[in-house]
Design brief:
This protein is of the alpha+beta class and about 250 residues long. Helices cover about 55% and strands about 20% of the residues. This is Transcription regulator TrmB N-terminal domain-containing protein.
Amino acid sequence: MTTNLLYSVFAQFNLNEKEISAFLELVKIGPSPVSRWASHAKTNRTSMYVMLERLLKTGLVSTFVHGNVQHVQPIAVSKISTLFDGKQREIYNTKSILNTQLPELLSLEKTNTITPKVQFYEGDLRVKAMYDEVLKERSFCAFFNPQRVKAMMANYYHKIPLTIKDNNGTARELLVHCKEAKEYKKLYESTRHKIAILPIGITFSSDTIITKDKIFLVGYGKDAIVGTEIWNKELAQTQTTLFELLWTKYSKN
């Protein structure tokens, strides 16, 4: 009965090793006065009363008085599983309450957060996952180099504009001047997807996608690709303002 596996079962009740040992000892000797239980568990009575309070809260033991002496009784072993059923119901009910209150919690999170939340993506698969997050957005503006995207993330060279079209989304993009930029503009420019090509010589060290609440950055190394997602409305608004300045200047060229 003292296997590690058995101890792991009762650890689910937030009991430590001494408390679990004391409970298992009570199971062996059956209903007993606290003094007898303490003796068998090799624990002083003061400590045993502390353990008793902890065990009572779990439902693993109960007390009764016999002959003017308090006795402690362990739950029947066959009924221990019902305690886990109760814990599951508590978890289910708590999750239901959380889901009900989630919109309010999310509202608090957005309004009270000062430090931006940042998530990093490293490698092709992780950056693809980040681009999939971008595709969930209904609207965005972006600076990007289509030559690099087509070379290293070819699927998304086409997938992003096609998804914008399929979802009736909107986008404005400033492209680094290159052959691929002209191709991209010819293929995908529309009233909902506006595209402008920057003058020769203007380039960026990373691609930047800006939404209402987020900024997505993509950096292309010689042999690696990394992405960063920054969730902060104020920073996104600042980047949008900078984009607007460049868009106003170059979108009419």
